[in-house]
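Technical note accompanying the year-one report. For the benefit of new consortium partners, we illustrate the data format agreed upon in the data management plan: each record pairs a sequence with a structure-token string. No post-processing was applied to the example shown here.
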Amino acid sequence: MTATLRGLSTVVPPTVLVQSEVRDVYAAQPGLNRLAQRILTTAFNESGIETRHTVLDELTWDPRDEEPVFFDQATGDLLLPGTKVRNDIYTDEASRISLEAGAAAIAATPGIEASDVTHVITVSCTGFYAPGPDYVLARDLGLPAGVQRYHLGFMGCYASIPALRLAAQVCDADASAVVLVVSVELCTLHLRSSNDPDTIVASSLFADGAGAGIVTARPLEPGERGFDLDRFATRITPVGEGDMAWKIGDHGFDIGLSPQVPHIIGEHITGALEPLFAGDASLSGALEADASGESIAHWAIHPGGRSILDRVEARLALREDQLVPSRSTLRDFGNMSSATVLFVLRGILDGVGPVAAVDGERVAAMAFGPGLTVESALLTVRG
């Protein structure tokens, strides 16, 4: 039996960052040189983002009595807390938002209770603590004492696809398995003012959010919708190892995000997708000049940035409507690293865009991350 992704749920923290307001705060920071000012204006204005969410409720102009940690309202200055301070916030907030997402996924899966969950897989690259979010989920959701737990850490934006692959493999090995998958990313904990172009671009893109779902081979209930997890593929591009990177610094995590990333993805995307479609006659034309044919109805592309989506759309000759879920996710939520592709998949199920997903349609999902690594999945809409 095929493993199915069910109960797909997404969560964002309540504090909203309006992109134009964030741009103005960053532009007003002391010490920015003229080049940084130009890069900043372009990065924020051309990001394709209107709003993002953050766990840092002090990143507003609402009056506060507490001592500022990240943002001094009196001066308008962005502060520079150390990595320990940032990670301590991650420990508290990642636990909270993971629980919210995990509980939502279980509640959204008819016929599944917390006591049914046999495995937990958590995903995150924006903080560390042990026992981690996998333990918190098992303890606070009332999962069985013997639930098996796995954590995929520090892999970057593509990591939810390997998590779904691992969940599907568990279900292939044990038809009775019920796997809870939760991705939580708190990227805004690591944003800061800088003259470094990579840091500026990251500050214009990244946001906080969580996605979760249940993967099991049990059949869907009447009226339920989900995705069959048909096939997965992974590829490392022959270039780009230094163009996307994620390292731990003294004042948070340091991201390397060169302007070559969209070009690299555009050059190698078809080669990365070929293994996903190999051996399936119904998909033989999916990578031909017109990839917008009926073989793949929907594309869940990780919206790492607007230029990446533009390059993928052009390279695969996709119709504009096929990337509406990805562009809408970028517009409303920004880049939430590994959680983002789960938001896009949820958008496809919810009918975001002019073409609603119907039972039996094929979906190609793809996410990119350090390496440069391309992870992809082939899914079928069910329900």
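Partners are asked to follow this layout when depositing records. Residues 84 and 333 are 26 Å apart (CA to CA).
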